[in-house]
Amino acid sequence: MLTDEERQWQDTVQRYMDRNVRPIVAEMEKAGRPPAALLKDMGEQGLLGSFAPEEYGGGGGSLMTRAILAEETARVDAGLDATLFVNISLVARHLIRHGTEAQKRKYLVPLLGGTASASICLTEPHGGSNALSPKTVGRRDGDGWVINGSKTFITNAPIADFFMVFARTSGEDRRAHGGTCFIVDRDATGLSTGKPFDKLSLRSSPTGEVFLDNVRVSDDQILGEVDKGFYYMLEGLDLERVFEGASNTGIAQACLDLAVSYSSEREVFGQRLSEYQMTQDKIARMAMGVEMSRVMFYHLVRAVENGEDVTRAAAVLKLYSSEAAVEASREVVQILGGYGLMEEYPAARLYRDAKHHEIGAGTSEIQKIIIAKQTYEKARPAH
Question: Pick from 8, 159, 184: which is nearest to 80 by CA?
Fold first, then answer.
């Protein structure tokens, strides 16, 4: 399902991650952020903007190249993947699709070059899944806008150079029309961020709060059109869930690799763990989850490239792949036994990181609601 060029890209990314990222995962987890030098090097190596237009520093490749990077990054460190996920899969793609030429030059170019990070400011303290009912508002004031509100659980907030802030500017609560996306620079008067959260999962990716107190912005800091921001957000959610499938596949693959390696060497009661049928059952189920997740996310990336509607299928992928990753992480801890509980082994980190994906980008419960609703809508009448 990959072209020869995409397979070459996959090999390149795998080698880079194993050589440059794997040795510093523990350091990133302790620091709570990826090193700026790493992001810059990834930008210089062309890893970040593989699918972006060449005129902005991208590689002009397929969207699949971005999905491959997500899987291979998550295979080594899901925290780093989360930071890149926001910078590239979300913010950069929004800029490519809806940004002005000036916005692309100011914000997109440094993102692809690895010299800037960004945040998507959507979730609020009163609830994350009710995205169309923000309390953050933007009001017209003279020749500009004033934004007031707060956001929480914002990936990259402690290190972001700019923020895409979704605010209600008109319209009714729980309606897509009337939301606007503002691009706000970190040094804007009235914008502040809280201290980084101490998280269970994705510890090498910083997360925090964003506060907006009478933040003034001009018209040229609006992404796309006024009152159309929530449509951009909803459009981005489908792709976000497809890339979640790539990330989950990477985590599950890492679990499988570790489980196979350990069980092939560990001896218990005179036999290698790999010779016990209960171990083989676990390995088979893990391998099944990896393969099914990968096949589906490959399929959906191609569908997105072709402009197809993938809302229901993306929810299915997100739900299935996150559950598969969580199962794989649970089983690798079980196979390693006491060693699986030790932080010096990657199993404990994989166990923590996998759980995030049943919550972030829409909980499993939300995915089930989407799947059921769309299934009913598409059902044929009984005869």
Answer: 159
Token pair belonging to 181: 């996306």
What pLDDT shows up at residue 77? 98
The predicted structure's pLDDT at residue 382: 65
Let me know: does 247 contact 81? Beta carbons within 8 Å. yes
Q: 354-364 b/e with 16+ CB inside 10 Å = b?
A: bbbbbbbbbbb
In sign, the C-alpha dihedral spanning 140, 108, 230, 323 is negative
Phi, psi of 168, rounded to the nearest 5 degrees: -80, 125
**Taking the model in full, what pTM does it have?**
0.93
Low-confidence ranges of the chain (pLDDT < 70): 127-131, 382-383
Joined together, the tokens standing for residue 244 give 């979640």
- Sequence-separated (6 or more) residues with CB below 8 Å from residue 38: 20, 21, 24, 80
Buried b (16+ CB within 10 A) or exposed e, 5-36: ebeebbebbeebbeeebeebbeebbeebbbee
- What is residue 365's predicted lDDT score, i.e. its pLDDT? 95
> 176 — alpha (psi -120 to 50), left (phi > 0) or beta?
alpha
Residues with catalytic function: 240
DSSP, res 189 = T
In this predicted model, what pLDDT tens digit does every residue of 192-213 receive, in sequence order? 999 999 999 999 999 999 999 9
Domains of the chain and CATH, by start:
4-116 (1.10.540.10), 120-227 (2.40.110.10), 231-378 (1.20.140.10)
Are the beta carbons of 87 and 64 closer than 8 angstroms? no
